[in-house]
Amino acid sequence: MKLFFTLLIITNALYANIENGKDVYIQNCANCHSVNMRGGMGPDFNIVSYSHKKADIAKYISSPSTMFRSFGYTSNAMPELPLSPQEIKDVSEYIDSLQPFKKWMKK
Ligand code: HEC
């Protein structure tokens, strides 16, 4: 029973992060990134979720200008946004949750 409640608390906390991350997305990213393959200036987050690890996504958001080359871009049009470390964590959690199956899981 104790384990059940511990798991419940962990699941709830994670879910709260994802929900909060969705708000961060709507307010700061939706102008340039879609989540329904509608397109935009930056890549759709379903693709990002599928092709990049959560930690790398977080790194990109904190510093696009130093990360764009390692993601295969030749130029950088994404600005560095004034987000708190928690907001970056939450929005990365949200992006990561969009696609449960990842590219690097394939053999
Ligand atoms: C002004 C438009 C703009 C805004 C706002 C913006 N981005 Fe971007 N983003 C881009 C563009 C354009 C790229 C393509 C690479 C580049 O120019 O840096 C990109 C690339 C990315 C990438 C790398 C994706 C990949 O797989 O290649 C991530 C991750 C990302 N953005 C996350 C975010 C998040 C999270 C937010 C909101 C907190 C955000 N972006 C807000 C324009 C934007």
Automatic annotation (TrEMBL):
<dbReference type="GO" id="GO:0020037">
    <property type="term" value="F:heme binding"/>
</dbReference>
<dbReference type="GO" id="GO:0009055">
    <property type="term" value="F:electron transfer activity"/>
</dbReference>
<keyword id="KW-0349">Heme</keyword>
<keyword id="KW-0408">Iron</keyword>
<keyword id="KW-0249">Electron transport</keyword>
<dbReference type="InterPro" id="IPR009056">
    <property type="entry name" value="Cyt_c-like_dom"/>
</dbReference>
<dbReference type="GO" id="GO:0046872">
    <property type="term" value="F:metal ion binding"/>
</dbReference>
<keyword id="KW-0813">Transport</keyword>
<feature type="domain" description="Cytochrome c">
    <location>
        <begin position="16"/>
        <end position="99"/>
    </location>
</feature>
<dbReference type="InterPro" id="IPR036909">
    <property type="entry name" value="Cyt_c-like_dom_sf"/>
</dbReference>
<keyword id="KW-0479">Metal-binding</keyword>
<dbReference type="InterPro" id="IPR051811">
    <property type="entry name" value="Cytochrome_c550/c551-like"/>
</dbReference>
<dbReference type="Pfam" id="PF00034">
    <property type="entry name" value="Cytochrom_C"/>
</dbReference>
<protein>
    <submittedName>
        <fullName>Cytochrome c class I</fullName>
    </submittedName>
</protein>
